[in-house]
Amino acid sequence: MLRALLDIFWDEDVWLPPNTTWEDIAPGPDKAVVYTDYRHLLYPIPLALVLIVLRHTLEKYIFAPFGKSLGIKNTRPKKAPNNPKLESAYAGSPKIKHKQICALAKQLDMSERQVERWWRLRRSQEKPSKLTKFCENAWRCTFYFYNFSYGMFILWDKEWLWDIDQCYIGYPHQGTTSDIWWYYMMSAAFYWALTMSQFWDVRRKDFWQMFVHHIATIALLSFSWVCNLHRIGTLVLLLHDCTDIFLEAAKALKYANYQKLCDALFAVFTVLWIVTRLGIYPFYIIWSTSIRAPMLLPMFAAYYIFNALLCLLLALHMLWTWLILQVAYKSINAGKMEGDIRSSSSDFSDSNHSNHSTPNRLNNKKDT
User: pTM score, two decimals?
Assistant: First the structure.
């Protein structure tokens, strides 16, 4: 039964161009080129665990001591007073409505303000310290810098970096090399690691948007690898990594109170984001996959799936661009970068109890 379902799912008419079979692109010593092997898609999962261990090692022995040397404190928010009934209500749902506040206040003979304050303290005590968030941003900045540098190094002499039509000419009989293999495997492992660690990292408002982004990226990497579309996949990876370096660096500098340098890097990030994510990505990458590809090779169902995932990423880019531009507008008015696009959600907010989880916080009700 399972074999039959797998045969239906991996139908050659869906995943491969016309007149092409899985045997045609299966790796083997008798083939003229080295084809991708779908079984290698399992490798990124254990590699992701290695990256998680590496991350925690670097955070503990390098990033945390470095952050402390910059004056970043590892202080945690004040804990809420012990109250079993409020604790029980909080365990049921961390979010609370005004009606629940009134009911709890009457039940416990407390004022509504006291219930609100307890709830705020209870929520904030689970939030990580600035040092923890600094370490998280330092790790991501380090990996993005490494991955982008490695990608530029290995793609510099590849013909499809300079002529995107080479992604389609000769497809699907395009061989892969060991450097491309490592680029794909490490990139996939990183997004697997982000997907796993997202559940214990700093909780932000766009938790599910980021979760969809990570899953869509993993799906893109997997489908492009199985279908031997690794050439266009490497271009998408390279384009996405370059801007994230500046974003994560700006966040880390924000926690270290290097405000001017943080503002400068955020300005560079904003320009690069717009140029790459709303310029090069849709008008070069997606235009190529949508317009040029059908001119150079016969279309097949999987290619439309691949293109749909690229468009899903573009939709997420447009959403985040709107948030980034709002932060940039507020920053210009305030004279420095304020707020956080990707912040922890909170039911109550005031000037004394805000969650500065990253340097580009967006709060429509107030300026931090």
Answer: 0.79
